[in-house]
Specification:
By secondary structure, this protein is an all-alpha fold. Helices cover about 50% and strands about 0% of the residues. The longest helix has 16 residues. The protein is elongated, with a radius of gyration of 25 Å.
Length: about 70
């Protein structure tokens, strides 16, 4: 397969937008393709667990923590 299989789209000219229709800025375009949170609440739960872990280990020396 290679280049020849896609030659028709590789050499195609980008279509022009209708007049009066502005191009989307790069920041908004990036948002469209950004990954979404597939697990609702996952990030919040991780934050809670990190805080709980920090609270539990606060005041422990490294030697106590490794034991």
């Amino acid at each position: 397969m290679g280049y020849n299989a896609y030659r028709d789209i590789m050499e195609a000219v980008r279509p022009e937008l209708p007049s009066g229709h502005p191009r989307m800025d790069m920041l908004n375009r990036a948002k469209i393709f950004a990954p979404f949170a597939a697990l609702r609440g996952f990030e919040e739960r991780i934050s809670v667990e990190e805080k709980r872990s920090r609270d539990e280990t606060q005041g422990c020396s490294i030697d106590e923590y490794d034991a």
